[in-house]
């Protein structure tokens, strides 16, 4: 059915009019789409560029801030390094305290003291100051329980009173040698002090503890004390179970006048006892080699040292080793020095020789 629209010059069908309108609408839609996509595509690069600028500014700002922080930290570190105190070496510290000079003076004083000892300038050395050299100092080892033995000796071979003074005028000093009790100042010490006040024939070793196990160390203290108190040519050690013939001993010593490096006695050797619990056991037995035999040494009953050997013991007493027995201990000291070992059977107290100067009580 055709429906006409009137107007002016004629009528057009309604179908044609609708078709032309639809065609116009189709033509207009693609155009609007293309214009919208074009505008959006042109906006994206602008946004990306703007974001890139922001990112660049952020990174640049952080880098600048980090560089400033590094500069600040570097300056602070340099200031702190300049303010840190210098680390001093040990020598610098000692120098700043004056210790080096003190240490040098101590070493020099020790050297002077050693030289003085070797030359006879010793504390309490009355004979050295007077210029008179004694012939001998005889030390008779004794103990706290040997009071009766001492009285027997005083009544037999050992002079007393004026006779003792006359013997000293001949250049021979005799003293009982004893240390101190483990309990200083007890009745043992007081009894010895009282006996010494009466007889005046003791050499009391203040630094030595009198005990059986300390006998090897007693030699250090005896020779050191004797050298410091008296300047003699010879120093003699005697056990308290020995009788002496003083005149015969003096004759032997006078025949050796002027001897240096003299180590004289009844020389012996023997096996080292390695079994603990046996008599004469030596705890340091392994030091004497596979043969387990003692070196040559003088019997402990009676032996003689010249002046320079006694001084050697005094000077080096702190570093001298000791063994289980005093005779092997002194013998070991003599092995390390330039000494002359003299074996004289007249000094063998247990021998049967008639001319001997000593005998066992």
Automatic annotation (TrEMBL):
It is found in: Golgi apparatus membrane. Its cofactor is Mn(2+). It is an enzyme of class 2 (transferase). Pathway: Protein modification; protein glycosylation. GO terms for cellular component: Golgi membrane. One of its GO terms (molecular function) is hydroxyproline O-galactosyltransferase activity. Its EC number is 2.4.1.-. Residues 33-42 have a biased composition (Low complexity). Residues 22-43 are annotated as: Disordered. One of its GO terms (biological process) is arabinogalactan protein metabolic process. InterPro entries: DUF4094, Glyco_trans_31. Keywords: Glycosyltransferase, Golgi apparatus, Manganese, Membrane, Signal-anchor, Transferase, Transmembrane, Transmembrane helix. It is a single-pass type II membrane protein. Its main location: Golgi. It holds the Pfam family DUF4094. Residues 43-119 form the DUF4094 domain. Gene3D superfamilies: 3.90.550.50. Belongs to the glycosyltransferase 31 family. Possesses hydroxyproline O-galactosyltransferase activity. Transfers galactose from UDP-galactose to hydroxyproline residues in the arabinogalactan proteins (AGPs). Is specific for AGPs containing non-contiguous peptidyl hydroxyproline residues. The addition of galactose onto the peptidyl hydroxyproline residues in AGP core proteins represents the first committed step in arabinogalactan polysaccharide addition. AGP glycans play essential roles in both vegetative and reproductive plant growth. This is Hexosyltransferase. It comes from Rhynchospora pubera.
């Amino acid at each position: 059915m055709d429906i006409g629209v009137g107007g002016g010059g004629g009528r057009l069908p309604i179908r044609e009019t609708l078709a032309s309108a639809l065609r116009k609408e189709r033509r207009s839609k693609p155009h609007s789409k293309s214009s919208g996509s074009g505008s959006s595509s042109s906006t994206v690069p602008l946004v990306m560029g703007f974001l890139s600028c922001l990112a660049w500014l952020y990174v640049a700002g952080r880098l600048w801030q980090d560089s400033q922080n590094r500069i600040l930290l570097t300056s602070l570190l340099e200031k702190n390094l300049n303010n840190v105190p210098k680390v001093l070496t040990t020598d610098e510290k000692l120098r700043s305290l004056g210790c080096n000079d003190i240490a040098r003076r101590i070493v020099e004083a020790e050297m002077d003291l050693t030289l003085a000892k070797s030359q006879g300038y010793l504390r309490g050395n009355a004979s050295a100051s007077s210029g008179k050299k004694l012939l001998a100092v005889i030390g008779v080892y004794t103990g706290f329980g040997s009071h009766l033995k001492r009285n027997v000796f005083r009544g037999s071979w050992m002079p007393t009173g004026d006779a003792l003074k006359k013997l000293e005028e001949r250049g021979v000093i005799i003293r009982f040698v004893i240390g101190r009790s483990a309990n200083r100042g007890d009745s043992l010490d007081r009894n010895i002090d009282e006996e010494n006040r009466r007889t005046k024939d003791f050499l009391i070793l203040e630094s030595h503890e009198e005990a059986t196990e300390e006998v090897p160390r007693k030699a250090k203290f005896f020779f050191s004390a004797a050298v410091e108190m008296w300047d003699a040519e010879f120093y003699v050690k005697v056990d308290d179970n020995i009788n002496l013939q003083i005149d015969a001993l003096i004759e032997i010593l006078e025949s050796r006048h002027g001897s240096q490096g003299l180590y004289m006695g009844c020389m012996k050797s023997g096996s080292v006892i390695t079994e603990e619990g046996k008599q004469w056991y030596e705890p340091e037995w392994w030091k004497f080699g596979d043969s387990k035999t003692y070196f040559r040494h003088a019997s402990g009953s009676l032996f003689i040292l010249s002046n320079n050997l006694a001084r050697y013991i005094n000077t080096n007493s702190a570093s001298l080793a000791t063994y289980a027995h005093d005779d092997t201990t002194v013998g070991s000291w003599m092995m390390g020095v330039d000494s002359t070992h003299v074996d004289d059977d007249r000094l063998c107290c247990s021998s049967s020789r008639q001319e001997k100067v000593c005998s066992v009580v």
